[in-house]
Amino acid sequence: MRMTIFLAGLLLGLAAPAGAAINPAEYQRVASDVLRIRETARIVEELDVGGDRLRRTTLVGEVLEQGQARGPMVGKTVVIDYTVNLTQREKAGRDHATRSAGMVGPQFVHDPDPPALDADGAYWANLAPAGGRLGNVNRHAGAVVGMVSNAFSGEVYVPVAGQYSFDPPPR
After folding, report:
1. Could you tell me if 166 and 124 are in contact, meaning their C-beta atoms sit under 8 angstroms apart?
2. Contacts of 39 (CB under 8 A, 6+ apart)
3. Spans of the chain, pLDDT less than 70
4. Could you write out the three-class secondary structure of the chain?
5. What pTM did the predictor assign?
6. Are 167 and 28 spatial neighbours (Cβ–Cβ below 8 Å)?
7. What tens digit of pLDDT does each residue of 130-166 get?
8. Which residues contact 59 (CB under 8 A, 6 or more apart)?
9. pLDDT at 4
10. What integer pLDDT is reported at residue 69 of this predicted model?
């Protein structure tokens, strides 16, 4: 009986880290700002630069709700601007699949595609200010940081939770 309890505890202990490794909430926690935004403008541009496919996404919207933020944001207009190197993201995904060979563990995290809108024309965003500590270090496969043409007045945000950046906050 004691051996069965010991083995059950051991198996549960080993399974816990694997579960955390694939939990989207773990990636969303890094965001300094979790906002629900009604989209007012979207520009998605794909370019070929030096043989790499780049996709620059610029989103503008009004904050409807905030899960957390560094200050009051409801009613403000925000800009989200980020560029993803699709060629590098695909290569990193193939490399990860080769290395992991289907084993359980940390999954492949990559910068997101543009968000899908809900019935209200809104989406949740897990963000950090561009150029700040969180905006620079929490980028994932395919991220392009420091594009020259990023010139806006006011604060600009980047998604920081990988492909979970535009998922609702965990409940």
Report:
1. yes
2. 59, 60, 61, 115, 117, 121, 122, 123
3. 1-22, 105-106, 146-154
4. CHHHHHHHHHHHHHHHHHHHHCCHHHHHCCCCEEEEEEEEEEEEEEEEECCEEEEEEEEEEEEEEEEECCCCCCCCEEEEEEEEEHHHHHHHHHHHHHHHCCCCCCCCCECCCCCCCCCCCEEEEEEEECCCHHHHHCCCECEECCCCCCCCCCCEEEECCHHHCCCCCCC
5. 0.79
6. yes
7. 887 777 777 788 888 764 445 555 678 999 999 999 9
8. 37, 39, 41, 42, 79, 80, 81, 114, 115
9. 52
10. 86
Question: In terms of DSSP bridges, do strands 33-49 and 122-129 run parallel, antiparallel, or are they unpaired?
Answer: antiparallel
**Cβ 32 vs Cβ 127: under 8 Å:** yes
Two tokens at 125?
A: 């965003």
Q: What per-residue confidence (pLDDT) applies to 150?
A: 52
